[in-house]
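thought: fold this chain, then report.
action: predict
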Amino acid sequence: MGGFFGTVSKTSCVTDLFYGTDYNSHLGTKRGGLATYSEEQGFIRSIHNLQSSYFRTKFEEELDKFKGNAGIGIISDTDAQPIIINSHLGRFAIVTVAKVTNLKELEEELLSQNMHFAELSSGSTNQTELIALLIIQGKNFVEGIENVYNHIKGSCSMLLLTEDGVIAARDKWGRTPIVIGKKEGAYAATSESNSFPNLDFEIERYLGPGEIVRMHADRLEQLRKPDDKMQICSFLWVYYGFPNSCYEGRNVEEVRFTSGLKMGEQDDCDADCVCGIPDSGIGQALGYAEGKGIPYHRAITKYTPTWPRSFTPSKQELRSLVAKMKLIPNRAMLQDKRIIFCDDSIVRGTQLHDNVKILFDYGAKEVHMRIGCPPLIYGCPFIGFTASKSDMELITRQIIKELEGDENKNLDKYATTGSPEYEKMVGIIAKRFGLSSLKFNTIETLIEAIGLPKCKVCTHCFDGSSCF
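observation:
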């Protein structure tokens, strides 16, 4: 997916920029980049590969080279960023959190207009450069960003570092967030509001869908009003978001806790304790324990110092290794226990398969799994959801193909909680992985926990309901 941070200050922005960007590290593992601007030295940029190290390690020693009161930073799971452009709009640097599903089509269109691409990412066109080329087709930055909104399929939120402040533009449908922070003498924009507390920023407001603002050190200038329709990704609360972060005024941990609480209140399963699969299953499990009225135990713990999030590696072998090695079971808390485990989701089943075997091997009497979202039936065409290249990597689609002979048949029935098709699919997943029982959250409970109208939340991966 990826996350960014940008700031404009009356004094040097470098320290805030460095730490603010680092606080988005849970959203990506491939590349990190920083760019600053000062009248004396112009644009200064650096990009590093993060696949073998962490953002702070890569950038700490070169911080002294960055100068200026304005800057942008990115943790990217896609292309190398920031890109610096010199155009009729002036010089600017750009970072994006984007997924452009019609990249090839737009690339051919721009090449036919005698434009060229200088940047490549893994042998393909750098989508951030493509977005920049769409921007410079406009007469001004706002018209250029609207050109992006009108051409891309997928999603795109962006920060532009210009010679006159930082422009923040949220995705047209609001699928990915931008949060504005303010403190004395500075403004900031970020994907994740957990960037703010330790840097003394307070949340000023959340940009609306398609809204564009320019940040100065002492004021926020609205360049484009927000659109009415929104489709913010529900998976931000289920999985991506850091517990301290808020989107649309709704805190991630609070949503997970509330969702688990409601599931626990409705569940008639007999169990001795509840445990959350780290990290994003913990909030749900704490709520579930309260709703169910049974204790929360840490029966499995994540070894945090060295293992990344397991959805990010592109190779299945490495994903499996990460999923297995990062979680350590505690025999003392598992022995002879009937345990309910809470996890955020089941994508391929890689982690579930390994986790269940370990839990039984370490003495669990029963292993019941409760998932914080509905079954993932549809791939996501809007944001960088996983490293999956095909819907057939979803365990649900594999089972549907086994049952129907066609992975695309009767998807609406399998997505409907309580239908015969749904119950059969869930039963097969539980049996395949040796679970004592398996239950998924419902869309209704998830939306109630999020606290926004269903029409403003994208649940496409569960019910196929959204569109471009």
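thought: worth noting. The chain has a mean pLDDT of 93.
final: tokens above.
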